[in-house]
Amino acid sequence: MNREKLRYKWIFSVSSRFSRVDRKGRSKVTSMLATLGICFGVMTLIVVMSVMNGFQMKFIDAIMEVSSYHIRLSDFDEVTESKIRQICSENKNIKSVSGFYEAQSLVTTTRVKQSVALIRAIDQDVYENDPGFRKEVEMIAGDFDLSEPDSIIIGSGMARDLGCRLNATINLFALSGGNDVQLLSSDRLFKVKGVFKTGYSDINSSYVFINSVAGEKYFGKEAVKILGIKLKNSDDDQMMINRLKKEFPEIKVQSWRDYNKTFFGALRIEKNMLLLLVAMIFLVVGINIYNGMRRLVFERRSEISILSAIGGRNSEIKSVFILQGFFTGVKGAIPGMILGLFLSVNSKTVFLVASRIMFAFSYLITLVTNPENLPYVTENPMYTIYANIPSRIFFNEVLWITLFGVAAPLLASWAASRNVLKMTVAEVLHNE
């Protein structure tokens, strides 16, 4: 045990000694650039991924909480529905269970404007009993009040397209359904009680909500009731599906992974491609470290030969240089992680400050080159849009990015030290 401790001690001592000696001239610059490269690479990746997560989760959260739910059940009767609700009420991983009907419609107003809509008939107490739904559905006018059968809540995009305001009258002119549903009618009239907005524009421009009583009245007897289940942890969907299928094999079950599968897949590909492009920073830094370490090994060939002559093993001498790569990664990755988290938490301030700086720079350039165009110099509105995107930090992503920042120089150092004793001691001393 003491021999092992001494072995690690002299590896650490020699590596530290080489590091102190190399803090001069070209080696110092190479080491500093490598450390800064790792630092800014980790920082950039964390910030980019946090902003991208916030951007994508605005869509995903709106779809999950308003449209798809985590699990959707259909093809059940009233007795089965009661049993399902009982099982869900006893499961601590389930946040809420809501029943609803859906139908497609062409809605019109008294101004003879029309818009395609997805009509969802829900219970009038959903807004109070479902915190996730309430969080994503932001009321910008009126209240989410479906207490009356002729009440309707519409999205902000549809309100703009139809040109209607609160208390305006909307007609479900064309309505999908079974044989007992009248396709065209001018008598399905509803009064606008509220206008909502979510983080997903398609929901704002196409979704409307009515009372479940009105849904049962207008959608017909063939309308399919759907139960939407929301979980505390969305990754537990398959476990819950297996349990429900075991208890009720006749019901139809759909997971959020299948609902809008193409859209979620596109978001995942977009995120992975961005991650791959930004991760190229580590490849460039790794190559730089590899070349610098190879030069260092060549410059230290006489010391390496002496270490070998006095009994140093090949693996131990390699460990001296690998340890230097590890220290380079740690010195770059840890500060990069701290900076990345700080910028991610304060992303709104960062974008607003960047907007001011770019405006001041553009103003100064225009003042010098073309003063008559100064009235047209304005701040870039895109920075304000970016500032309003809430960053979302995932601990596992931060951990993996930081570990990758440490691993890049570590692997580069290992690759550079593979042939550390390619020359014999006699050859080195002869050359000296």
In helices, the fraction of residues equals 55-70%
Let me know the largest β-sheet: 6 strands, mixed, barrel
The share of residues in extended strands comes to 15-25%
Count of alpha and pi helical runs: 16
Oligomeric organization of the protein chains: single chain
Given as residue ranges, the uncertain stretches (5+ residues, pLDDT < 50) are: none
Please, what is the average pLDDT? Answer: 80
The end-to-end span amounts to: 38 Å
Computed structural class: alpha+beta
Shape descriptor: elongated
Radius of gyration: 32 Å
Number of strands: 10
Describe the structure.
With 432 residues, the chain is of the alpha+beta class. 59% of the residues lie in helices and 16% in strands. It contains 16 helices and ten strands. It has helices at residues 2-21, 25-68, 78-89, 126-129, 131-136, 156-162, 201-206, 212-218, 237-247, 261-299, 301-309, 314-345, 347-369, 381-387, 395-416, 425-431, and strands at residues 71-74, 94-109, 114-122, 138-142, 151-155, 169-175, 189-197, 207-211, 226-231, 252-255. The protein has a six-stranded mixed barrel. A hairpin with a 4-residue loop joins strand 2 (94-109) and strand 3. Helix 10 (261-299) packs parallel to helix 15 and helix 13 (347-369) packs antiparallel against helix 14 (381-387). The longest helix is centred in the N-terminal third of the chain and has 44 residues, at 25-68. The radius of gyration is 32 Å and the shape is elongated. The model has no long low-confidence stretch (mean pLDDT 80).
